[in-house]
Prior knowledge:
The structure holds three protein chains of three kinds. Chain B has five helices and seven strands, in the order E-E-E-E-H-E-E-E-H-H-H-H. By secondary structure, chain B is an alpha+beta fold. Chain B starts with a strand and ends with a helix. The longest helix of chain C has 28 residues, at 535-562. The interface between B and C is large, with 59 and 62 residues.
Amino acid sequence: MTVLVPTSLDEALSALAGMPDALVLAGGTDAMVEVNMGHRKPIDVVSVNRVSELRSWTYDPIEATVHIGAALTYSELMQPPLADLLPALAEAARTVGSPQIRNAGTLGGNLGTCSPAGDGLPVLTALDAVVHLASTRGERSLPIREFMVGVKRTARERDELITGVTVPVLEGWQGYSKVGVRNAMVIALATACVAVDTPGRNLRLAIGSVGTTILRCDEAEQFAAAEVDFIGCVASSATVSRFGELAAAHSRPIDDHRSSAAYRRHAIGVLSSRLLRRAFPHE
Amino acid sequence: MSNHNGPTLDGSIAVQLNEHYSLDVNGETREVQDAWIGESLLYVLRERLGLMGSKGACEQGECGSCSVMVGGELVCSCLVMAASAIGQPIVSIEGVAPVGSPSDVQQAFVTAGAVQCGFCTPGLIMATHNLLERSPEPTETEIREELSGNVCRCTGYGRIIDAVQQVAVARRSAVAS
Amino acid sequence: MTIIDARPIAPPTGGRLGDSISRPDGTAKVQGSFAFSSDLNAENCLWGATLRSPHPSARIVSIDVGPAYRISGVEAIITAADVPGKATYGLISQDQPVFASDVVRYVGEPIAAVAADHPETCRRAIAAIIVTYEVLEPLTDPELAIDGSFPPIHPDGNLIRHQRIVSGDPTATGAVVVEGLYEIGMQDQAFLGLEAALALPDPGGAGIELYVATQWLHEDQKQIAACLGLEYDKVRLTLGGVGGAFGAREDISLQVHTCLLALRTGRPVRISYSREESFLGHVHRHPAKIWMRHHATAEGRIVRIDARFVFDGGAYASTSSAVLINGITHTQGPYKCANATVDGYAVRTNNLPCGAMRGFGVVQACFAHEGQMDRLAVACGIDPVEIRLLNAIETGDAFITGQVLRNVAPVERCIRETAALPLPDEPVGGHDGDVMRLPGGAGRTADVSHIRRGIGFAVSVKNLMYSEGFDDYSTARCRLAGGVATLKFATAEVGQGFVTIAGQIARSVLGVDDVKLDSIDTGVGSAGSTSASRQTWMSGGAVNAACMKVRGLMFDHVAATHGIDVDGLVVQGNEIVDTAGTLRISVIQATADAEFDETVQYHHKPTEDLDENGQGNCHTAFAFVAHRAVVDVDPELGLVKVIQVATAQDVGRALNPLSVLGQIEGGIAQGLGLAVMEEIIMTDGRVRNPSFTDYLLPTFLDMPNVVTSLIEEPDPFAPLGAKGVGEPPTVSSTPAIVAAIRDAIGKPLDRVPVRPTDIIF
Lengths: 283, 177, 761
C-alpha cells in the first residue's frame, strides 16, 4: 500500500505508469466518500493536488482561451479575474457543495468523476472545452463531448492523468442554473448552461442530470440562433418558450429517489427558457 | 500572456508512504503509526492522535462537523486522505485556543446561546474563524452562505448568526479604539 | 418585612431563575474538549459492529460465522444464541429481538455483532458472515395490517393498537362541511452525534459499566439487565455526552450488543454507528395518513369532527401505541369541539420501526387539523386568523376525551400576538439583490418576477409529560456544604440545557453561587426520559423540591444556632435574612460547618387510561403556540424559500429566556424540515436515501430568521410555573409553512414534505 504525493507532473505520470490501478486522488470529495463507505478499497493512491503544473491557470488573449489546471479548486474558479473570463463556470462552482467542498474539490476531479450531475461539466460542454490528458506515453487532447463516455465513465486511460482543460473565452452573455431541493449543499436535479457567442451569432445550451452524460441541445441552439437579435439582445416570448420546449424534449431523464423524470424534464424547460431570457432580456 | 500560480506548495519530491508517516498538526510534528492507508484525516486525528475535538457525523462532507484547516483552507477532514496531507499545516479545533482560554469566537458562541448539544460546534468554530479572517464584516447573507456547509440540528442557526455578528462588532470596536 | 441592616445585598453571580446565563458545558463544547459518547475510549478497547438484514422480510435459514472468525483481529461474534437473558426488548411491549434468529422483519434488523481490533476488521468480518435467507413478501401497506388480509408478521399480530374516541352527539351537523386526507412522510431525528457506547466489563463478568448517549438511563438499565440476565445493580450506566436526541435515543439500539460483546471478550468494547446505520438503527417519526371531516356553523364554529388516523409503526411496537393516543387525542387541536368520532390505528409493517420524535403523534394530528381550519376558513369566507380566534379553546373547556383543560391556556394571546408580530421588511429577493435571497439560491433558478409570496398561519396544543396513568417521576439529590451546592440527577442532558436550569434553580432557592453538577448516572433514582417536553417540569420540580428541603434544614440550623424563630428566615441574594429580627448571614457562613443532603422524588398528578370510547383524563398538562410563516415560492420549479417564521409561545415562565429561544428556533427548523425537505423514502420496505446527501436537513440558507414573543403566564400546576417548551415549536411550524405555500400557489398540498412535484404538477 502506497500513497504518492508528487509535486511535479513528471513524478505524477511516472507514478501512474508504475501503478496503473492506483486511485487518483485530487480534492477527495468524491473518492473519499467511496473509501469511507467501504465501497472502494484502494491499494495505491496518487494524490495529485500538489502537482504544480496542475495548480495554475493562464489566459491567452490572442487565442481567446483560458487554460485551467486540473487541480484548481471550485473556490479558485469563483475568484476574479478568472471568474470574469468564465462567469458561467464561476456560477457553477458556487453551487458545488459547501465552502469546505469548494476549497477541496477540483475541476479535474469533476471531469474524472464524470457524474451527469457534475456542476462544472455543463459549462465546459457549452463552451466546447478541450480536455488534456497526459501519461508517460505522451499527451493528447479531446473535445469534452468525446471525453465524457457515460455515467461516471470517461475516455481516460488508466495510466493517464487529466492535466487541465482549455476553455474558449466567448464574447457574450453566459449563465448557469441548477435545481436542487435545498438552498445549499444539494445534488443537481437538473442543470443548464447557456453561453452566447455574440460575434459568432450563435448560442450554446448544455444540460445536466438528464442523461448519461451532459447533453448539448443542438436543435434548440439552432432554433434560437435564428430567432433572436444578438445585437439588441431581443428574443420574443414565443422564442423563449419554444427554446425551453426543445431543451426539455432533448433531455433523457430518469426516475430515482431524488426526483422524477417528468420533473427533471420540466425543470430543464423552465431553466433553459429563463436562461435565454436573461441572455436576451428584451422582448 | 499572464500566469497565475496557485498557493505556494511545500515539498519538492514525491513522498512514498507506507504505514508510518508524520503530520504537522497544530504546529507540532505528530507521528502516525500502524495506520491503514485509506484512513481519513478525521479518523487519524481522533483515533491515532487522540484529538477528539473534530466530530464525524456523515463521513461524506455533508455536515461540516469535522471541519479543519489544511494548508490554510477550510476543509472537511473526513474527505482528506490523511497520508496525502503530509507536509501541510493542519489546524484542528484543539489548535484554535488553549483549553480554558477560549477565543473570541468560542466565547461568543457560549454567551450568545449558539451551543446546544454541541456536536456541530467545533466545526462551526473553525468555519467562523475562517470566515471572519477573510471577511471581517460579513452581511447576514454572507454568513449564511459561508457557514452553509455546517449543519446544526439543534439551534435553527439564529443564535449562531448572532454570535458571529457579535464577534464582528467586537473586533471592529477593538480596532476603532 | 423590615431589613434593618442597610448593607446592599451582595450581587448574586452565576445566574438565578429568569436569567439568560450560559451553559455550564459551553466552554468545553466550543473547545472540542467535551466528551461525547463517540469520543470515549479505554485501554485495550475493541471495536464492535453489527450485521444487519438486507431484506424487509425473510426467514433466516442459516448463519455461518466460521469464515468471519478466521479473520485476524476478530475477537468475538455473537448472535441470538448468545443472549443469556430475555431475548427481546421494547419500551412498552418487549417485542423486538436483541438479534433476529428465525425471521427478519425490516431492512437493518440486527442479526449478529462482531468485536475486533479495528473498524476495518469489523467491516470485513461483518461481510464474511454468511446468512442464508428465504426471502418473503414484505407487508408495507398499513391498510393490509388493519383489514387483517396479510398474515401476521409477528406473534403479537399486525395491529399494534386500535383506539376510538366517541364524544358528544355523533350525529350533530353543521351548515359547513370540509374534509381532507392528509399524509405525513417518515421524518428522521437526524441528531448529529451518531449512536455510540462504551462498555467496560467487571472482572469475571459479574457486571458491566456502560457509557452511552441515551434519553433515559434507568429505562435502558432495566431493559439491558433483563437481556443480559443480570440484576439491575450489576448494570451501571453513565451518560456519555449526547449529540442531540429528539426522540431517537429513547429506544434501545446498540446498548445490549455493546454489553454482550464486552462480557464475551472480557475487554472494553465501543460501538459507533455510521450515518447509514443510524438511519436504520433507530426509530423514526411515524408516517401517517389522517382523514378528517369538520362540521361547522355558517359562522365557522366547529360543531363536530370525524377522523381516522393510521400510523405506520414499522416492524416493532416501540412507543407506537402512545404515539397513536397522542395523535388522536389532539384531533381537535387548540379549539373547542363537543362532538367527535375518531378511529385510530397503529399498525405493524415491514417498514422501519417508528417511535418517538419531537411532537410525538401531535405533529401528524396538527398538520391535519390545521389543514382543516384553513379549509374551514375558505368555506366560511373568514380570515385564517379569525377562524382560529373564534374557536380558541380556554381553561375550563373539555377536550373530546372529556378531560377538562385546567392549565393556563393563552391560545387567544398566542394567536393575536403572533399575528401582530412584524412581517419581514424585505421585498422578494431582498434589498441587496443577492441570489441567495431567492428560492434556488446559488443555483440562480429564478428571477424576482418568477416568485410568489405567501403567508400561512397555524396553532397547536401539545400535551406535556407522559400520559395514560404512567408515573413518570423524577429524582434529584441536593447536598449543601460550605456554601457549595452539589446536585445529582439522572436527567439526560441531550443539548436542551437542563444542566443550566438545574444550577439556576439551586442558586435561586439556596442563595449560593457555586453549584456543582455530579455525574449523570444510575447512582441516583430515575429522572424519567428526556422527552415529552417534561424535564424542566419534572426534573426541575425534583431539583427544586430537593433544594427546598435542604433550605429548610439550613434554616433550622441557622435558627438553632442563633436562637431565633425559623419562620422569619428567607434567602435574599447570597444571604439568609431574618425578616422578624436583625440577623443576616451569608449562606457560606451559615453552612461553613454543616452539611445537608436530601434526595427527593417529584411526581405529577396521576393520569388515567382512556376507556373504550376514548374518554378519560389521560394527559398531564398542555402548552400552546401559534406560528406564522412567510414563504417565497417559485411556482414553475416548485422551489420554496421560507422568509420568516413568527411565533408567540405559551411558556408559562421563561426560566432562561435565551435557552427558550434556542428551543423555539431549533424546533421550528425541524418543523421546516418536515414541511419542505425531510423524508425517509421507502420503496417495498427498502430505504432509498440513508445518507445526508439524500436525506436533506435545513441549512443556514434554508432556515429563516424567527421573530419570537414569549407569553409568560406561570402555570399553577407547574412546580416553577414553567411549561415544557421543546416540542410545541415543531408541532405547528410545519402546517404554517405549508399554509403559506398554499397561499402562494393556490393548491391543496395535503402531504408533507411538500415536494417540487407537488407544487408544479
